[in-house]
Write a structure and sequence with these properties.
Elements lengths: L1 H7 L3 E8 L4 E14 L5 E6 L5 E5 L3 E7 L5 H10 E9 L4 E8 L1
Antiparallel strand pairs: 1-2, 1-7, 2-3, 3-4, 5-6, 6-7
C-alpha cells in the first residue's frame, strides 16, 4: 500500500503524533508520500507538501493497521466518510510515535 501511495503520488493527510512522560506533540501535513535513506542506511517515510512542510518517520520496528471511515465513532462517521476513505496507521514498537496516513474520499 505504501508503494502504491508513492508510485501514484496519492494526496494524503498525514498526522504524526508522539507522547512521552513529559510531553505530547503532533504535526499535520497534506501532501504526497516519498522515502529517503540517511547516512546510516535507515529508511525514512517522508510526507511533504509544495510549501516545504515535511513530516519524516523512521521506517523500522512498526506495527501497521488499516481502517476505513465506516469504523469511525457514530458521531464522526458522516464527516469522515465525506473527507476520507481510509486511514493507514504506522505505530513504532520501540518509541511512542504514530503516523496516520488518511486517504481522500
Amino acid at each position: 500500500m505504501l508503494g502504491k501511495f508513492v508510485e501514484d503520488k496519492t494526496p494524503l493527510a498525514a498526522v504524526l503524533s508522539s507522547r512521552s512522560k513529559l510531553s505530547v506533540g503532533s504535526a499535520r501535513v497534506e501532501g504526497t508520500l516519498g522515502y529517503s535513506k540517511d547516512d546510516d542506511g535507515r529508511t525514512w517515510l517522508v510526507v511533504s507538501d509544495d510549501k516545504g512542510s515535511v513530516i519524516s518517520f523512521l521506517f523500522a520496528d512498526l506495527k501497521f493497521s488499516y481502517g476505513d471511515s465506516r469504523e469511525a465513532p457514530s458521531h464522526l462517521r458522516e464527516s469522515t466518510t465525506q473527507r476520507f476513505s481510509g486511514v493507514l496507521s504506522l505505530v513504532s514498537i520501540t518509541a511512542d510515535v504514530k503516523l496516520a496516513l488518511f486517504e481522500p474520499a
